[in-house]
Design a protein that fits this description.
Layout (H helix, E strand, L loop, with lengths): L1 H18 L28 H12 L18 H10 L1 H6 L17 H13 L16 E3 L7 H12 L20 H7 L11 H7 L17 H12 L6 E3 L10 H12 L18 H9 L2 H6 L17 H12 L6
Parallel strand pairs: 1-2
The structure holds heme C (2 copies).
Length: 337
């Protein structure tokens, strides 16, 4: 058949080029893959992080990111991109169809290849419900399912605290081109492949056998087995930008080992441990955490009160349930239970 012949013509050079390129992390400093050969438009492997984000980054992020993105549309946010991909305005606008504002605004139309690649991604992707279709704003919350790992609740705070710190993978330093402080950057620069932890650079880096290459690097502590398993499961479950909201918040049975330490470990320890902890503040054991709680700094910081540095730094505020659990634990006299 003709189509199979064409497929071979595309696939054989692709496979050859993959074989000739051994995987060397030193060589992957540039997060943006080079443009596909002009003239040929290879749409066999269209991934979100490898193809879609680089196109949007080059042509759309200048207007559609930041505090006040054009049209209220932040295209670096996966949920918002999924929303316009599903309602037709993404393809309508880049194809300059009637009824849509032509994009990129006031700039030349995207190449036919870029448009074809985005269209392929839209048709190949099964989008999760980006938030009820109620016409906007803040949707996307789900109730917490114990078998699901939620990016916004667990993965992002952990990566910000353990990796996205100043001097490492924050946007300013971007060591090795890797930025680990927001969903789009994590997907793109750490080459996260939904469903395939072993093929994802992020997972490879935290599980590397060689302690010299393992992330976070020495003298920082490696991630715990539980944290590594969480990241693995999140990638296996599709590496979604998901969030859950607990509706039943247990404030009666708050314990140090059950809620307080796991939260600190996930969201704070990456910065507040080691030889030079942030702010000179160690939060590695019960007595250190109890002391920061007793002097009011801990609650001031997590409640974002004036006069305190808002914590977790560079991350979203802890949810109301967690803050209430901290209050209860302090009210109960910061027990080591
Ligand atoms: C120079 C700034 C600018 C650039 C670059 C830009 N946009 Fe926009 N975009 C806007 C503005 C302003 C609006 C809202 C006003 C409007 O709809 O015309 C908008 C609206 C949109 C909408 C909603 C359109 C509709 O009719 O509902 C989509 C989708 C969109 N942009 C996608 C993109 C994509 C995809 C790119 C890159 C290929 C891009 N934009 C590049 C400024 C820009
Ligand atoms: C990305 C690194 C980072 C993370 C994550 C982080 N902190 Fe901090 N923290 C800092 C730095 C840096 C300071 C010093 C003050 C400043 O520069 O804002 C600090 C200061 C503090 C202070 C002193 C605040 C004051 O104004 O006296 C407390 C308490 C604190 N952090 C608690 C926490 C808790 C609790 C968490 C987790 C929920 C957390 N931090 C997560 C970096 C971090």
């Amino acid at each position: 058949m003709r189509t199979t012949k064409i497929l071979y013509v595309i696939l054989i050079p692709l496979i050859l080029s993959l074989l000739s390129c051994t995987h060397d992390p030193e060589d992957t400093a540039d997060p943006i893959p080079p443009d596909p050969d002009p003239g040929s438009c290879d749409s066999t492997l269209v991934t979100y992080s490898g193809i879609v984000v680089p196109i949007l980054q080059a042509n759309c992020f200048s207007c559609h990111t930041g505090q006040t993105p054009s049209g209220g549309l932040d295209l670096s946010n996966y949920d918002q991109l999924a929303f316009v991909a599903q309602n037709g305005s993404l393809l309508g606008s880049i194809r300059h169809e009637d009824g849509y504002s032509p994009m990129p605004q006031d700039l030349p139309k995207l190449s036919d290849c870029d448009i074809a690649l985005i269209a392929k991604w839209v048709s190949d992707t099964t989008f999760t419900d980006p938030g009820g279709g109620g016409g906007g704003g803040g949707g996307g919350d789900q109730e917490c399912d114990p078998d699901t790992v939620y990016f916004q609740n667990e993965i992002l705070p952990l990566l910000i605290s353990s990796c996205g710190v100043i001097g490492c993978h924050d946007p300013g330093t971007a060591e090795d081109g890797v930025i680990l402080t927001d969903y789009a950057s994590i997907m793109q620069t750490a080459d996260v492949r939904p469903g395939d932890p072993e093929g994802s650079d992020l997972f490879e880096a935290i599980t590397d056998d060689d302690p010299e290459d393992r992330m976070p690097p020495l003298p920082r502590q490696p991630l715990t087995a539980v944290q590594i398993a969480k990241i693995e499961k999140w990638i296996q479950q599709g590496a979604q930008n998901n969030l859950c909201e607990t509706t039943d918040c247990d404030t009666l049975n708050v314990t140090y080992s059950g809620q307080i330490f796991p939260l600190i470990q996930n969201s704070c320890l990456g910065c507040h441990s080691g030889a030079s902890p942030s702010g000179g503040l160690l939060l590695t054991n019960h007595s250190q955490i109890a002391e920061a709680s007793a002097n009011g700094r801990l609650m001031g910081a997590i409640r974002h009160e004036t006069g305190y540095s808002p914590m977790p730094k560079n991350g979203a505020q802890l949810n109301d349930c967690t803050i209430t659990q901290f209050e209860k634990w302090i009210e109960n006299g910061t027990p080591n239970n």
